[in-house]
Amino acid sequence: MAETGSRIPLQTSSPMERIFPVLNPDQIERAAAHGHLRRVEEGEVLVEVGTSNTRVFVVKTGHVEILRPLEGDEQLVASLGPGQFSGETSVLAGQRGMARIRVREAGEVIEVERDQLLALVQTDSELSDIFMRAFILRRLELIDRGYGDVVLLGSAHSPGTLRIKEFLTRNDHPYSYRDLDKDPDVQALLDRFHITMDDIPVAICRGDAVLRNPSNEDLAECLGLNQAIDPTRLRDVVIVGAGPAGLAAAVYGASEGLNVLVVESNAPGGQAGASSKIENYLGFPTGISGQDLAGRAYSQAHKFGAEVMIAKAAKHLTCDRKPYAIAVDHGSPVPARSIIIATGAQYRRLTLDNLSQFEGTGVYYGATFIESQLCSGEEVIIVGGGNSAGQAAVFLANTTKRVYLLIRSSGLAASMSRYLIRRIEETPSIVLLPYTEITALEGTDRLRQVHWKNSKTGNAETHEIRHVFVMTGATPNTEWLDGCVALDSHGFIKTGSDLSHDDLAAAHWPLPRSPYLLETSLPGVFAVGDVRAGNVKRVASAVGEGSIAISFVHQILQE
To answer: What is the pLDDT at residue 331?
Structure first.
């Protein structure tokens, strides 16, 4: 969250003062205008763990405690006195509380409901800075301490464990992890919940719900990530995909008064969310990780009132009538006056017979901190010559013994930014192998050996390598559209002037005007980011397209 221009003297405030700031009397009165004053008594529980967390309490007199329940006990997280307030980012999303809020000393509090809180952060710049910063920092503190409502029992040899860790991490959801391969005391936990090794990974959700190898959707349901969202409500715009393009559209749309719902199949950030460090994005001279950028945009979207439905993949678009409707995983169809498709693309899978056997246990499609922990001190392979591959190579070179960068072409100049090429050239542990492709993978429970071949010399090699990162090519996520919009020969969505007369005739384009920039062959449906034909594969471009699409949504809604 940008802090430039804040009226808070950041240089003199300590970290704890920023996490738990004290409002002055004037600020308290302005907050009170968005809530109501109520008397609270000693021992009164204001919010219980696992219940809807849709209120913030500003302490006027007395004291309030933030507590973390433990087995038969509880741990004090923070004590709030006059001028301090409760809450973290889950309040903005209307999700379940992860802590107990109880009155320690009777007094008066200002109770601010979620809708009033959103009005406060949207209209009062100073209080917005204070509340939003505190909420975000508190969530980061919960993550750092593992103070979540999930205990994950897993193994580095389990692809499901990696998937769940990535899902929770990329959704900024705090959790604690017990490694079955290393934790000598984990058997007692397994016995308590009647868990066998065949059940791994297991997520113990909210202290009592035991989910055996749950899907991301199951986990989101148990955690209540979508509980405040009514999917049947007609929205001005439904955005499919929460990558940089989708999040930009959500921020601009919601900030301009549109009723916005984002449908995301996994976690905010899209492909960019797995980038270890983006150094060429405007305004971040020292770089920013894809996850940090996505997390900031996610909080920003919530601040303006956009809703984000997590772990719900779009399955079908009903396009023969209005309002349009999007069918999602195990849920009611989502109606929409207009739609922005921002489903992005995924890395192309290697054409190897046994590839799926090693996905998650040696073959990965992102290089984040989680994956880097799995291969520390080892040799790794990265397949691909784009910026994502370059960022991954530089990132993994910090913790691995050697990084082999395999590309099919002669060099990187045509596909990678110059600053990354120079970084790779200056890193001795990164070995660039042109004209090289993987020919076979070997292993049993996990990857053990990799074979590769140079297509120019015919030279073949075999290496004892247990980790391969695939970041090559792009396959658009458009299979769910079922012929509703025109696609190019590679499956990307055609928009605007790229739509030919034949495309529009085949789609029975009903309007006297031509499609707007970024509009598909279906009126009122737009495509932005990597899913769009002719897209520029840069985060800044995706953000720009997302914001531009909103300007056309306004015009569509007026037609």
So the answer is: 86
Residue at 490: amino acid letter: H
Nearest-angstrom CA–CA distance, 301 and 254: 7
Residue type for position 124: D
Omega before 323 cis (within 30°)? yes
Which pLDDT band holds residue 11 (cuts at 50, 70, 90)? very low
Nearest C-alpha neighbor of 503 from the set 524, 485, 529? 485
Pairing of strands 209-212, 202-205: antiparallel
188 versus 324: which is more confidently predicted? 324
Q: Is the whole-model pTM more than 0.85?
A: yes
Instruction: Give residue 473's pLDDT.
Output: 85
Neighbours of 327 (CB within 10 A): 15
Residues 470, 447 contacting (CB under 8 angstroms): no
Alpha-carbon distance 278 to 276, whole Å?
A: 7
Q: Which runs of consecutive H residues, i.e. helices, occur in 13-158?
A: 15-19, 25-32, 89-93, 114-123, 125-145
**What is the Cα–Cα distance from 199 to 171, expressed in whole angstroms?**
24
User: What are the CB-based long-range contacts (under 8 Å, 24+) for 372-379?
Assistant: 372/276, 372/396, 372/398, 372/399, 372/400, 374/156, 374/162, 374/467, 375/399, 375/400, 375/466, 375/467, 376/400, 377/401, 378/465, 378/466, 378/467, 379/403, 379/404, 379/463, 379/464, 379/465, 379/467
Split at pLDDT 50, 70, 90, the class of 13 is low
- Which of 381, 505, 392 shows the shortest CA–CA distance to 433? 381
Strand partners, 336: 235, 324
Give residue 186's pLDDT. Answer: 78
Sign of CA dihedral 116, 122, 127, 128: positive
What is d(CA 339, CA 59) in angstroms, rounded to the nearest whole number?
42
What pLDDT sits at residue 53? 84
List strands edge to edge, sheet with 460-463: 436-443, 447-454, 460-463
Please, what is the end-to-end C-alpha distance for the chain in angstroms? 36
The mean-pLDDT minimum among 61-75, 79-93, 115-129, 473-487 falls in: 61-75
For 99, the token pair is 């802590």
